[in-house]
Amino acid sequence: MIKPLRKAVLPVAGLGTRFLPATKAMAKEMLPVVDKPLIQYAVEEARAAGIEQFCMVTGRGKTALVEHFDVAFELEATLRERGKTAELQALHDQQLPPGAIVTVRQQVPLGLGHAIWCARAFIGDDPFAILLPDDLVLAETPCMKQLADAYAQTGGCVVAVTEVPRDQTSRYGILDIESDDGRLVAVKGLVEKPKPEVAPSNLSIIGRYVLVPEVIGYLARMDRGAGNEVQLTDAMARLIGQVPFHGLRYEGRRFDCGDKVGFLEAQIAFALKRPDLGPAVRAFLPKYIDA
Ligand code: UTP
């Protein structure tokens, strides 16, 4: 029997060095795309996939992330007094049920794998999703919902994948492909950040995963991988052969919001999609483009 997917881990303990000085005193995941912080996009995407319980893995200087999911009592009272019903509704829409989100602390940022291991008590014996909030996906069907639907068919592990240019494989976790039907890819190996000349493919993992709890046992070994960090990819690779392991070519457009160019592109793409902002953005954009 395939266990239902109800839990998600949101690792948000990275240093965000590529966004300094913006991230000196503020978490990268609080950066807004248009008018919503990255963390909120991730939570909404997970909820659309049926996920009910959340664990944020936080670190120092990340308190705003926790506050964001709390009730802003004084703010709400003031909005009510001033008759700002639309704004009040926007706050209520983002509210999670009591107890639906917990936080654990990753005291030292030793890598993504270590961050996930820090959530081991939350994960317990259940399958779980991981969403990296700085990967933002614009899609008709939310990316995590696509993954959850695939998981309901295959069980085991399912990761979202996309083709990257050959010369960029050393920035990503890369799949070694067993078979490929154009959408679902059976995986026979994974390599974190391989050089282009040794990369087994150019199919890379993006920040959306569905994993089995057994991965925690491998993370607990604390083996250091690329960049001397505890790599999630290395622990996942050990599950191959034990449980079904698939990559899903999701439908949608992914923006790497941990990178300045990706973040700027996301602003434009998401603003253009908004009925209230799209026409105005479309009208001013040509002014900034060389003829
Ligand atoms: P990144 O590789 O983007 O690293 O992490 P970073 O520290 O956030 O940003 P840069 O590269 O310094 O600019 C990918 C994801 O893993 C989390 C990050 O918060 C992000 O969501 N992460 C990374 C942790 O939670 N802990 C870590 O030790 C490392």
Description:
This protein starts with 6 loop residues before the first strand and ends in a 7-residue tail after the last helix. 39% of the residues are buried. The mean pLDDT is 94. Strand 2 and strand 3 form a beta hairpin. It is globular. It has eleven helices and 13 strands. With 291 residues, it is an alpha/beta fold. A nine-stranded mixed beta sheet has the order 5-4-1-6-11-8-12-10-9. The longest helix is centred in the C-terminal third of the chain and has 14 residues. It has two domains: 252 residues, Alpha-Beta Complex (Spore Coat Polysaccharide Biosynthesis Protein SpsA, Chain A); 33 residues, no CATH class. Helix 10 crosses helix 11. Uridine 5'-triphosphate (UTP) binds next to helix 5.
Order of helices and strands: EEEHEHHHEHHEEHEEEEHHEEHH
Q: What's the main sheet like?
A: 9 strands, mixed
SSE-based structural type: alpha/beta
Shape: globular
Number of beta strands: 13
Kindly provide the radius of gyration, computed on alpha-carbon positions and rounded to a whole number of angstroms.
19 Å
What value does the average pLDDT take?
94
Query: Cα distance, first to last residue?
Result: 60 Å
CATH class of the largest domain: Alpha Beta
Q: Strand arrangement, largest sheet?
A: 5-4-1-6-11-8-12-10-9
How does CATH name the architecture of the largest domain? Answer: Alpha-Beta Complex
CATH evolutionary superfamily of the largest domain: Spore Coat Polysaccharide Biosynthesis Protein SpsA, Chain A
Sequence stretches where pLDDT stays below 50 over 5 or more residues: none
Q: How many helices in DSSP terms?
A: 11
- The CATH topology of the largest domain: Spore Coat Polysaccharide Biosynthesis Protein SpsA, Chain A
Please estimate the helix content: 25-40%
Number of domains: 2
Spell out which ligands are present: uridine 5'-triphosphate
